[in-house]
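Propose amino acids for all 191 sites.
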């Protein structure tokens, strides 16, 4: 049997070039569509990262404010001049604002951490009363210390004088000057 040639699809050069151009154009559109979908995913990931980063920075700020508040309360309760009650109230208000901002973020509305943040908010609100009680406690402590110093003034003055004379004989200038300064301040407060 003799082979009969099949009729093959034969296109002219112009049709082949046009077909190739259309094929390359379709591949280009497909690649562009894939890139657009990928960029949308990237945008969503970037947006999520940005939100998490903002929340993390806010959490770190809250942590810093809590540490500062603890430090300020300690300094306020033990010293007279380093921290004022206005600074404590200001820091407490800033802490409350930061907690409120973190609670309003979308990420934490449905989170388990919202209960913890609410508890922190209640605790920060209760600091106002505690700050006022610290002022009263410091005033009571100052009166108590003053009374105790007045009750033992002569004994303390004699002891400081004895130490001063002993160190003067030993030629220890720095401790002598320090004790003399303390004794001088003590005597000025007594008068």
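Proposal:
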């Amino acid at each position: 049997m003799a082979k009969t040639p099949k009729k093959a699809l034969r296109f002219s050069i112009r049709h082949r070039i046009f077909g190739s151009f259309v094929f390359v154009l379709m591949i280009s559109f497909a690649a562009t569509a894939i890139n657009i979908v990928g960029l949308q995913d990237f945008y969503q990931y970037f947006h999520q990262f940005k939100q998490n980063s903002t929340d993390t920075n806010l959490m770190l700020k809250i942590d810093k404010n809590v540490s500062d508040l603890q430090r300020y309360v300690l300094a306020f309760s033990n010293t007279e001049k380093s921290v004022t009650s206005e600074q404590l109230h200001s820091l407490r208000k800033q802490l409350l604002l930061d907690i409120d901002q973190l609670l309003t973020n979308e990420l934490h509305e449905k989170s388990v951490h919202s209960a913890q943040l609410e508890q922190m908010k209640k605790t920060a609100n209760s600091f106002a009363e505690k700050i006022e009680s610290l002022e009263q406690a410091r005033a009571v402590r100052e009166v108590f210390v003053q009374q105790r110093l007045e009750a033992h003034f002569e004994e303390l003055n004699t002891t400081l004088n004895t130490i001063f004379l002993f160190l003067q004989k030993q030629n220890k200038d720095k401790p002598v000057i320090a004790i003399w300064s303390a004794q001088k301040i003590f005597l000025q407060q007594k008068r």
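The two ends are 139 Å apart (CA to CA). The chain has two domains: 41-134, 152-191.
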